[in-house]
Amino acid sequence: LQLEPGNRVLEIGCGPGIALKSCATRLIEGHITGIDHSPVMVKQAQKRLAAEIRAGLAQIQLGSLSDIAAETDAYDRVFSLNVVQFLPDREKAFRQIHALLAPKGVAATTYQPRSKNPTRADALAMASEIETAMKAAGFAQIELHELLLDPVPAICVTGVKG
């Protein structure tokens, strides 16, 4: 994410807050927000980030991308990890993400197939779908980043709001 100290960061589908905790260690004056549809995950993330929440650095809320889509130019970075496969309309989701980003803001979406007998081709196919949705939403400088993991790689697709 190439975080800078004052960045405002959103994680879609924050789960128990592990990635947000990592982001918090890199921010000094910024702010991190996590959203998740699961009350259990929200509680776990709130517990993990209790100190950051008390300090006003973090906010964890129950909800989905649609619940915060009305915000505009709010974030410098928006990311998700293994969430994109659950989005019913990816093009709409990336338009919403694009609207949430400040100019030159970065979106990063990582996917690692979790199906039975996953393959690298599965990961690359989803990356292609993400890239297509990001282009349609107006993202520029779209790049694919591959992390070699076992049994299949994780692919992160990044794009910049022009």
What would you say this structure looks like, in words?
The chain is of the alpha/beta class and 162 residues long. The chain is 34% helix and 31% strand. It is built from 6 helices and 7 strands, in the order E-H-E-H-H-E-H-E-H-E-H-E-E. The protein has helices at residues 18-24, 39-48, 50-54, 65-68, 90-100, 120-137; strands spanning 8-12, 31-36, 58-62, 75-81, 101-111, 139-147, 154-161. The protein has a 7-stranded mixed sheet, sandwiched between helices. Helix 5 crosses helix 6 (120-137). The model has no long low-confidence stretch (mean pLDDT 92).
What's the topology here?
Layout: E1 8-12, H1 18-24, E2 31-36, H2 39-48, H3 50-54, E3 58-62, H4 65-68, E4 75-81, H5 90-100, E5 101-111, H6 120-137, E6 139-147, E7 154-161
Parallel strand pairs: 1-2, 1-4, 2-3, 4-5
Antiparallel strand pairs: 5-7, 6-7
- How do the helices and strands follow one another from N- to C-terminus? EHEHHEHEHEHEE
How many strands, which pairing sense, and closed or not: the largest β-sheet? 7 strands, mixed
Terminal Cα separation, in Å?
Answer: 17 Å
Strand order of the largest sheet: 3-2-1-4-5-7-6
Radius of gyration: 15 Å
Beta-strand residue percentage: 25-35%
Number of strands: 7
Shape: globular
Number of helices: 6
Structural class: alpha/beta
Mean pLDDT: 92
Helix content: 25-40%
Low-confidence segments, ≥5 residues, pLDDT <50? Answer: none
